[in-house]
Amino acid sequence: MAGEVGLALVVAVAGCVQWLTGMGFALVAAPALVLLLGPADGVLLAICAGGVVSCAGLVGGWRRVRPRDMVPFVAAAVCTVPVGTWTAARLSEPVLMTVFGALVCGAVALVARGARLPGFGGPGGAVVAGGAGGFMNAAAGVGGPPFSLYAVNAGWPMREFVPNAQFYGVVVNVVSVASGGLPGLDVREWCVAGGALFVGALVGRGLAGRVPERGMRWLVLALALAGGVVALGKGVWGL
Fold first, then answer.
1. I need a surface site. Which of 86, 145, 179, 227 has the fewest CB within 10 A?
2. Distance CA 120, CA 114 (A)
């Protein structure tokens, strides 16, 4: 029962955050889900739920998606997702937990800094960001930060960034599920996760416009960093 309560809380909070900010579900949920369910099932559930959230978010903004700009992201991600799945499947749990924690902490650092990299906002940067995001999504469930880093360097406004990030999330998560499969949850756990995701979206919708965006952004990063540090420590301890 305690595990199901924790699962519901994590998914609901992450769903609420995603609705409020347009991103952040995986950063918030994946570290906690990995600690609750283990690296394999935790990452796979984060991928599945993240795909559902991205689909829902894309409904109202699909007209602002830039198909031509998204081609290099999607093409590169499709190539690297199987590599991430293959890598994760061959690592022991302590090593996988360590790699996961390190990737999450690194992703948080990049997003927090909003790093400016010469040339990263061009076509070559899109390929690198898409490839890195595909690998990270399949291996750790957190494929958004490279896309965010590209958008910062390309100067995309938020109204352009959100729908394109949702589109990218849909494609990468679908490919990741096709490559890695579904998490081994029982019917009750699936129902808990689905219900929590719905409740989180409702709460987020009710709070939309009332919560400062900057404050939510730093809350997302703080929650993600905390989960990444705990996962990293647990992995190192088990080596």
1. 86
2. 12
The single-letter DSSP state of residue 194 is H
> Which amino acid appears at position 26 of this protein?
A
CB 42 within 8 A of CB 33: yes
- Reduce the DSSP state of residue 83 to 3 states and report it: helix
Cα gap 228→151, rounded to integer Å: 23
User: pLDDT by residue (tens digit) across 136-194?
Assistant: 888 878 777 788 778 777 777 777 777 888 888 888 899 999 988 888 888 888 999 99
Name 100's Cβ contacts closer than 8 Å, sequence gap at least 6: 30, 31, 34, 39, 43, 139, 140, 228, 231, 232, 235
In whole angstroms, how large is the CA radius of gyration of the chain? Answer: 16
Residue 11 near residue 196 (C-beta atoms within 8 A): yes
Rounded-to-integer distance, Cα 81 and Cα 136, Å: 8
- Is residue 129 within 8 Å of residue 63, measured between CB atoms? no
Rounded to 5 degrees, what angle do the CA atoms 184, 228, 98 make?
75
**And the tokens for 94?**
């302590």
Measured CA to CA, the distance from residue 237 to residue 220 in angstroms comes to 26
In eight-state DSSP terms, residue 208 is T
Integer Cα distance of 137 and 117 in angstroms:
22
Instruction: Dump strand ranges (E) for 97-137.
Output: none
